[in-house]
Amino acid sequence: MKVQLKPLSQQAIVITGATSGIGLATARMAAKRGAKLALAARNEEALHQLEGEINAGGGQATASDLAGMLCLPYISYRELFVELARRLPGFLVGRSLAAPVTSPRP
User: Fold this and answer.
1) CATH code of the domain occupying 8-87
2) What is the pLDDT of residue 46?
């Protein structure tokens, strides 16, 4: 089976460690190619600086406290993805949910 990936301009990507190393390089490269980005990192000041840099350059980036969120006790990956979708409007979480979720479900 041949895998066909969508162009980056049609994708939303969550990048952790976005303020240094490969995370920073990936964020900048993906932004240049038109991906919508959710950025997470421990250095909040650098994170917001990168968010501003990408948005000022015409990209779409949102700095998020995903790192803190991942420490919360989730019962399932589904709950984690529902929370991601709630915090990042428009975030697509894959086929297991079948559709974008914009608010938590009971």
Assistant:
1) 3.40.50.720
2) 93
